[in-house]
Structure formats: structure tokens, C-alpha cells
Amino acid sequence: MVKRKGLEPTSKTSPPLNLPKSLPPSNLPIVPYHDDIKRCLKSSNCIILTSSTGSGKTTTIPFLAHTTLSTPVTCTQPRRVACTSVSTYVSSLLNVTLGGKIGYNIRFDKKISKETVISYQTDYMLLRGSASGWGRLFPDYGCVIIDEAHERSLGSDFLCSLVKSAMKARNYSRFIKDDSDISSEPEEIKQLRKIVRKRKLGPLKVVVMSATISATKFEDFFSTPLSPASVLKIPGKTHRIDVTYLKDPCVDFVEACVEAMYRVHSGYGEGDVLCFLPGREEIDGAVYSLRKLLIEREEGEAQPFLF
Questions:
Q1: Which among 12, 27, 103, 274 has the fewest CB atoms less than 10 Å away?
Q2: Cβ atoms 145, 177 nearer than 8 A
Q3: What distance in Å separates the CA atoms of residue 60 and residue 232, rounded to the nearest whole number?
Q4: For the region Disordered, what residue ranges are annotated (predicted)?
């Protein structure tokens, strides 16, 4: 996990049982908007939040939701490694033990206890417990956060549908006096509302987050006549970013990545290069090719660290 400047984990000695009331001071772009986020969490049933990568959404919003709403919060991630790395970082940041107040839930691995109030889990793990019966109302949570919503996988789309139904059932059932008030509702919502009234479930808040999301589509989907979704757009760039494209399409994108990384390495001095590739096979191939290229062209010189 790469540590962001200005948001360093606190000491790990004697972790407290309870979460702190606030996050450690930081210079993340999302910090000046904490009050706006808290206000939206209190006033809206659903928030569509867009902000550039690195703004602090994933590490900050679940904590703000929990402290503002005083309710358990879960945040979904499309990948297992994101769940484990983010939960580990946040628990270290807040100086609490992983698996206590902060936890994660992925396939074949889970660090969650009865004390957990903020959890990170993959879309499919949350779906497993909410696809039928009582679980469709997400009774263990008062706020569900769907992160990286722009990826639009089958799991995340299905999850959005379930969360919307649960939100409608839990948030408006307290205004309904008897079954005649819901005669025009779909049968599924009728049944969910009955369960909510019987179990006395509280409201469910929903936050949809992404760096490249189409806010209008999600706003239209989650908005209801009684409660339109709120849209928050937070600037997230902390440094200058230049985008450069290849002039011509490449036949072998792995080879093209290797050549591009070598040009950066040999022409720009000290620094780091982060390269995204679709799978392990491509990553291993790129590392092998780059090492071979460095040996051929820079024999006798100190080699950069590849991982």
C-alpha cells in the first residue's frame, strides 16, 4: 500500500477499542468538503459522489458516514486486494486492530467481528447475503457505499438494484399506516415494507462513488419522488497531470508498455513508473521483457527495482 503524503498511519501501540471522533489531519482534496458530505448524509437518502482518483473517497467516506449516522457502514470494492489493502490502511490510520471496528470480507477470507462498524467487501460477497429473504433489506447496515461504480459489472449492477429496493422499503415504510397505502407498489416492495415494519428497521442511506462515473444516470436511477439523490462533485487533482497518447495503434500492447517504460526510465531521471495491465500473465511478461531490455542496454549499471 502506497502511503499518501499528509495522511500517515498513527502509532500501532495500544490500539483503542473505539474509533476516534475524527480522522488525522491531512491535505487530501476531500478534506475541505467534509461538512458538505456530512450535511448530504443527513439530508439525502442517496448521494452520488464523483471525485478524481487519489482524493480520499475510499478511506474517508465510510468513516464520515459512520460518525455522522452512528450506524454500521459497508463499502464495496470490485477487487479482493482493494478490500484487504484499504481496510488494513484505514485500521492503521485510525490506530485500531483490523478485524475489530474495521474489517473486510472477501471470498475464503474474512476479518469481521460483532464489533465491526466499518467493513470493506467485494460486490459479490455482499450479494451473497442479500440476494433473498431477510437479507434483501441489508439489515446489518445503515449505510451501503458502492465504490468504483463506473466499472458496471454484473454484480455491481445487480447490487444497485437490490440496494435501491431496500432503500425505498426502509426509508418510507415509517410513513405508511396500512397495506392500503402501498396498493400501487410492486409486489416485491410491498413484501419488503411489511418486513421493515415488523422488524422495525431504520432508514438505509446509499452512497455511490467513482472517479469517472456518469452522475446523471445514477442520479436518475436512485432518485425517488419523495427523495431525489444528491450529487457531489469534488475536485481531486493534487498535482499537474499531462495525458499523452500513442500516435498509432499498437499490435502488442505489452511490448509497447515495456518500450514506453524504458523511455521514461532512461529519459526522465529519478522517479517511479506505475503501469496498469489487464492480468498476471501480461504483468509477468512485461517484467521479464523489461529486465531483459535493461540488461541488454544498460549492462554494468545499477538496475531499477521492478515489482
A1: 274
A2: no
A3: 15
A4: 1-23
Read off the amino acid at residue 296: E
> CA separation (Å) from 118 to 87, 202, 299?
9, 18, 50
On whether the 31-234 domain is CATH 3.40.50.300, my answer is yes
Give the other-Cβ count within 10 Å of 221's Cβ: 14
Which residues are CB-contacts of 235 (< 8 A; sequence separation ≥ 6)? 29, 51, 52, 55
Binned at pLDDT 50, 70 and 90, residue 22 comes out as: confident
Range(s) for CATH 3.40.50.300 in the chain? 31-234
| Local structure of residue 72 (DSSP, 8 states) | -
Q: If DSSP states are collapsed to H, E and C, what string results for 99-153? A: CCCEEEEECCEEECCCCCCEEEEEHHHHHHCCCCHHHHHCCCCCEEEECCHHHCC
* pTM across the whole model: 0.74
Q: By the 8 A CB rule, do 38 and 30 touch?
A: no
Burial group, residue 77, by CB count within 10 angstroms (0-12, 13-18, 19+): buried
What pairs with residue 44 in β-bridges?
A: none
Candidates 222, 235, 174; CA nearest to 200 is 174
Yes or no: say if 116 and 145 are a contact pair by the CB < 8 Å rule. Answer: no
Q: Which three cell numbers stand for residue 52?
A: 478524481
| Residues whose CB falls within 8 Å of the CB of residue 297, separated by 6 or more in sequence, listed in order | 262, 266
DSSP summary character for residue 76: E
DSSP 70: T
pLDDT tens-place string over residues 84-141: 999 999 999 999 999 999 999 999 899 999 999 999 999 999 998 887 777 888 989 9
How many of the other CB atoms lie within 10 Å of CB of 157?
12
52 vs 62: CA distance, rounded Å = 17
